[in-house]
Amino acid sequence: AKASGSGGFQYFRPEMETNASDRLVLGSALSNALSDGGLFLVYQPQADLDTGRLRGVEALLRWRHQGETISPDRFIPIAEKTGLIHAIGAWVIRESCRAAARWKAEGWHDVRVSVNLSPRQFHDRGLLATIRSALNESGLQAGHLEIEITESMAMSNPAHTASALAELRALGVLVAIDDFGTGHSSLAALGTYPLDTLKIDLSFTQAIGTDPRVEIIVRTIIAMAKTLSLNLVAEGVETQEQADFLSGAGCRTIQGYLLGHPMEEAEFGQWRRGHGEL
Ligand code: C2E
Ligand code: CA
Ligand code: CA
Ligand code: CA
Q1: ipTM of predicted assembly, 2 dp
Q2: Which end of the chain has fewer CB atoms at under 10 Å, N or C?
């Protein structure tokens, strides 16, 4: 089991992962979680290394089940299999828009909240309507919402990706490619998508200082993002050494434990005030 903290979690025992009947049990508990308040969001800050300014937050989903906080890496795959992901995903989008609208009302004028999409959500015809209604209901303008799809999702069906991203863009929503560097994309394919942000996968960030080959890859990704005029966010930054390398290489925006763990909304409010943000 992995250590906790408000953004932390416990891993399920491996045998639970592979046991189909447990998956059933967990699946039905998960469907209750949506109605009984067991699901909640935590928010992890992204900030500019040079100015120290807050750039945005990533919303990350948590499930409190029988006293433990379960990682999304464990329950999102179940939600994908059962189809619950549509209801859960819509809830995440709605909650994130509401939170961002509150922060904006508190004076964070250029607030940006990033929301993760799973493959099934991304391929769902109802996604656009879900996003549109979350924006309407919260009063948040589309430009304050960013959706994150992984690089492998983006590359698995290029035609669908191109049209889905174009629709999101037409709505005014920002688009980030998550886990970048892990999904075999070509510069040519990337160049054809309407994108705003590349997120450098944490496996690269965390090899900085230990693996010179990875440092070359990171420099290449940064150069690629510059060529395509994309914003960059380095994920999983835990040490000052990693931050210094990234900043020197031209990636100014970071996300990771060095800056802040994922936090519940109240704690995130304190974090913002502690960092001189409104
Ligand atoms: P991700 O989108 O790549 O999210 C980044 C993960 O890295 C998060 O794990 C975050 O807590 C963790 N992290 C952040 N900073 C650091 C750091 O400095 N060091 C290390 N070692 N880890 C760091 P988390 O919250 O457990 O989420 C895991 C994955 O679950 C996410 O990976 C994402 O793919 C998925 N996920 C989370 N929330 C949602 C959601 O609302 N919807 C969907 N579809 N997927 C979600
Ligand atoms: Ca993400
Ligand atoms: Ca990621
Ligand atoms: Ca990941």
Answers
A1: 0.98
A2: N
